[in-house]
Design goal:
Length: 351
């Protein structure tokens, strides 16, 4: 079998190590080398599973093991204890994956649908359906991110700021060491996210080491059908394996695993992806309710996705933490209702 993988981003690099047992594999990548624009936050158990499966030592890639996420809503901030979250060296892992693969790599080459005539199977791992073709409801968000050095990290652990629901995204700071962090922002407007990141860096006196921008497709799998057309099949973000918060590494890697397992049965592959990521529909509905400030939907979908995130990131909240959270939320709701959200109050920490 002759296989072409189009895109040597995250899913393409993983697949280049999984598909060679089926025959000849050629990989085409637009960039001159594997490049990543990512904050690199993933569940630790996922990183261990993937690296072990591909024959690498997980500990070589872990940069920061997290024990909490600080969620800042502007008028309330909540600290959630987590036990299964880390940042990892994605660029190194991708380069190691390319080096370890038996596939043939062509960097600096743009792939097009013309390849379908020369290969038995063409994998669209471009993240944006460059070969499968865009869909009418495709939602594209802008992201801007810097790697920055601080004298001391502005926040002690993972930090996410959701104070502006209508922006379509949020600002994040994910630590990669006790002085280095990725600071980024996603949203509808490129200039807005750029200035939000700049303000954060200026406020905390950070030194920018690297700047990267990228537009990303954020649609759930159900909104990304069909997953294959003739002999072209999608994987990763091309078929919606990304949450509305932009978490796509673990999910895209899972879709790559499914494709490698069901390469000869693409219908079964589609079924597997849809079943595994059914929960993403709730995730997208939750974020839509947040953006439009629809309180009852927010609670409904929030309860549904809480269970998923609780399991994935191993969130273990004690009774006193839970009561403290309820107290803080009620206090915030009371003051916001009475005096307007702008006034607000910071709750007690969820910890
Ligand atoms: C700023 C930012 C921060 C993020 N942070 C996180 C995070 O903390 N945790 C997390 O889990 N996820 C995060 N993500 C999401 C994650 O990076 C993606 O979900 C993941 O990389 C998707 O992998 P992919 O293989 O589908 O696409 P990509 O990794 O985007 O790979 C696509 C590749 O295809 C290439 N390509 C495109 N068109 C062509 C063409 N015509 N021919 C040849 N090559 C082509 C591109 O150059 C690229 O290398 C983040 C994303 C962004 C933008």
């Amino acid at each position: 079998m002759k296989i072409a993988i189009c895109g040597c981003g995250w899913s393409g690099a993983i697949l280049s190590n999984m598909l060679t047992e089926y025959g000849r594999v050629d990989v085409y990548e637009l960039n001159k080398q594997p490049i990543t624009v990512c904050a690199c936050g993933v569940p630790l158990s996922f990183l261990r599973h993937l690296t072990k499966k591909l024959g690498f030592n997980p500990e070589e890639y872990v940069l920061w093991k997290s024990n909490r996420i600080i969620l800042d809503f502007g008028t309330i901030d909540i600290t959630i204890p987590v036990r299964n979250l880390c940042t990892f060296d994605k660029e190194k892992l991708m380069k190691d994956l390319v080096q370890a693969s038996d596939a043939n790599f062509s960097f600096g080459k743009k792939a097009s649908t013309e390849l379908k005539n020369r290969y038995d199977l063409v994998v669209d791992a471009t993240g944006k359906r460059a070969l499968l073709g865009p869909l009418p409801n495709d939602k594209i968000l802008q992201a801007f991110q810097v790697k920055a050095r601080f004298k001391e990290l502005p926040y002690p652990d993972f930090y996410m700021n959701f104070s502006d629901p209508s922006s379509g995204g949020y600002l994040w700071m994910f630590p990669i060491s006790d002085k280095l962090a990725y600071v980024g922002c996603g949203g509808y407007s490129g200039s807005y996210i750029f200035h939000r990141v700049q303000r954060f860096i200026k406020r905390f006196k950070g030194r920018v080491l690297e700047r990267r921008a990228k537009s990303s497709r954020v649609n759930s799998p159900i909104e990304s059908m069909p997953f294959f057309k003739g002999n072209i099949v999608g994987v990763g973000t091309s078929i919606g394996t990304i949450s509305r918060l932009g978490e796509g590494n673990a999910l895209s890697a899972k879709s790559a695993e499914f494709l490698a397992e069901h390469l000869n049965n693409l219908k079964e592959y589609s079924r597997k992806v849809l079943a595994e990521f059914r929960w993403l529909s709730n995730d997208y509905s939750f974020f839509e309710a947040y953006e439009k400030k629809l309180k009852s939907k927010l609670i409904y979908f929030g309860t549904k996705i809480w269970k998923i995130y609780k399991r994935r990131f191993d969130i273990r909240v004690t009774l006193s933490e839970f009561l403290s959270f309820i107290y803080g939320t009620l206090r915030w709701a009371f003051y916001s209702f009475r005096y307007g959200a702008e006034l607000g109050v910071k709750s007690r920490k969820f910890k």
